[in-house]
Amino acid sequence: MLKIGIVQQSCNTDKQSNIAKSLKGIAECARQGAKLVVLQELHCGIYFCQAEDTALFDMAEPIPGPDTTVFAKAAADNGVVLVSSLFEKRAPGIYHNTAVVFETDGSIAGTYRKMHIPDDPAYYEKFYFTPGDLGFQPINTSVGKLGVLVCWDQWYPEAARLMAMAGAEMLIYPTAIGWESSDEPAEQQRQHGAWNTIQRGHAVANGLPVISVNRVGHEPDWTGVTGGIQFWGQSFVAGPQGEVLFEASTDQEQIAVVTIDTQRTEAVRRIWPFFRDRRIDAYDGLTKRYLV
């Protein structure tokens, strides 16, 4: 059994207050017995990709850097493995959306750079982020091999599958997703339903637990072009058959600790042997953009 802590929070333009919320959440999860704590995507600040603004590149920091120092200490002080999500300045003009995983002693166990980068209204991430170049490699930690992916990656079964094939023992998705101000209620329901379903599908197809931690609350578009984004929260944990073990609030910050049975993957894969029955001799087309 493994206790996993999730920290679903709202964010504003005050970086230190955002970090303070994350640190409080980490400590509370540890107090409740969590051995692994997962934070949401870009938890140190606003979701700045709502508009293109070169000044916002100043929010990025190197890795290692000041932010990693803060969260390394939090991991060590609380004795947890910690999954964070940071805006990385790699070099002038090269920035990444990067998840950093810390061990219980504060050392960096590994990093993952977001591979799939969206470019949609209010989600102009291609302006800010260079696509990741570290591939789909699980990060070895004292609580297991973590298949860490980030937000838009969650829509791609190929990413989940490659993590699973490389030995990931769970799939983890720090996320920032919500409804743009012009979305009608019916469209909102379709979007959330698709988001929840696709990730539970990754759990089923790969026989792995999935942990998805989303931000919550309204963040305005400072340019005034749109009415901003209402992040829909609803962070959740699913078991290896897609069963929902926990789902957070739609509109409230929430800290929760959820227990998963790390032995169920073996049991599930014995009764649903999808890996055994894969036709790897017939999948060459998956490496193509399109087949017609």
Structural summary, described in words:
The chain is an alpha/beta fold and 292 residues long. The chain has a single domain (2-287), classed as 4-Layer Sandwich (Nitrilase/N-carbamoyl-D-aminoacid amidohydrolase). The chain has 6 helices and 15 strands. Strands 5-4-3-2-1-15 form a 6-stranded mixed beta sheet. A 6-stranded mixed beta sheet has the order 6-7-8-10-13-14, covered by helices on one side. Strands 9-12-11 form a 3-stranded antiparallel beta sheet. α1 runs parallel beside α2 and α4 packs parallel to α5 (185-206). It starts with a strand and ends in a 21-residue tail after the last helix.
Question: What is the fold named in CATH at topology level?
Answer: Nitrilase/N-carbamoyl-D-aminoacid amidohydrolase
State the shape.
Answer: globular
Q: What's the end-to-end separation, in Å?
A: 47 Å
Largest sheet, in brief, is: 6 strands, mixed
Break the fold down into its secondary structure elements and pairings.
Layout lengths: L1 E7 L6 H17 L4 E4 L26 H13 L2 E11 L2 E9 L5 E6 L11 H4 L10 E3 L2 E5 L8 H9 L4 E6 L2 E3 L4 H22 L3 E5 L1 E4 L9 E4 L3 E3 L5 E4 L6 E7 L3 H8 L21
